[in-house]
Amino acid sequence: MAKILIVEDELSINELIRRNLNLTGHRCTQAFDGLEAVDLLEKEKFDLIVLDIMLPGLNGYQVLERASGTPTIFLTAKSELSDKLKGLSLGADDYLTKPFQMLELTARVEAVLRRTKKAESEFTLGAMRCDFESRQVFLDERAVVCTPKEYELLEVLIRNRNIALSREKLLDMVWGYDFDGGTRTVDVHIQRLRHKLHLEDAIKTVYKLGYRLEVSE
Ligand code: CA
To answer: How far is ligand 1, taken at its centre, from the CA of residue 75, in Å?
Structure first.
């Protein structure tokens, strides 16, 4: 999990970015103009900034100058090609041209975080440790054999921890939209994960909805 500052004056885009980064397990703070962003940067430390260039108050470049080396991904409009170069020469780590796909943004975010070593490479909960790079799960440092779907389900729960996920959503995220089996499949896999990894208490059943991995952070 990384702490990400989203600076974007368009409310709907800001909100869409926040929702998607939350889903990939990050904690986001939103700013809607340059002054607000600078104010937040003075008070808090962030792992990454997603920074629009055209902003009220101060523009993105002026914000970047005050960001004291925080990794930054610039958002630029298609017409502002020279802006990209300016952004990169000022020290932005990457840029995205609007309009962009959310999957592209989340991929860039992970890439920059990996480069700056803030990406989560493992997750520990009690005796359980999940290594995202080797896709292995350990219990008291002994490898536990999981099927690919069990592992993927676990990773989705971890990356969306403390968020209630419906069975349908889990089915889409792990098995894909074209999967024919019903949501019962999710229940069966959850039972196996709880049992194998001693997560009976941590994986909560959310009444009439689905499941949530509960972690105190
Ligand atoms: Ca803007």
So the answer is: 9
How many percent of the chain have pLDDT more than 70? 90
> Beta-strand (E) ranges in 8-109?
27-31, 48-52, 72-77, 94-98
Give yes or no for a cis peptide into 56 (omega within 30° of 0): no
208: left (phi over 0), alpha (psi -120 to 50) or beta: left
Distance, CA of 163 to CA of 176 (rounded, Å): 20
- CA of 51 relative to ligand 1 center, distance in Å: 9
**What pLDDT does residue 100 have?**
85
Tell how far the Cα of 52 is from the centroid of ligand 1, in angstroms.
6
Mean pLDDT, the chain, rounded, equals 89
Ligand 1 centroid distance, CA of 7 (Å): 9
Single pTM value for the model: 0.57
CA of 117 to the centre of ligand 1 (A): 29
Instruction: Output the CA 56–ligand 1 centroid distance in Å.
Output: 8
Bridge partners for 72 per DSSP: 49
What φ, ψ does residue 181 adopt, rounded to 5°? -65, 160
Instruction: For residue 178, report the distance from its CA to the centre of ligand 1, in Å.
Output: 37
How confident is the model at residue 89, as a pLDDT? 63
> How high is the pLDDT of residue 95?
83
